[in-house]
Amino acid sequence: MSTIAVLGLGEAGRLYACGLRDAGVRVRGFDLSDTATPPGIERAATAVDAAVGADVVLSLVGSRAAADIAAVVLPSLAQTVVYADLNTAAPVEKQRVGALAAAHGVPMADVAVLAPVYRAGVGTPLLASGPGADALAERLRPLGAPITVLRAEPGEAARLKLLRSVFMKGLATLVVEGTTAARAVGAEDWLRTQIAGELGPDGDALVERLIDGTYRHAHRRRDEVRAALAMLEGDGDPADMTRATLSWFERIVDAEGDAATSPL
Question: What is the pTM of this model?
Answer without folding.
Answer: 0.91
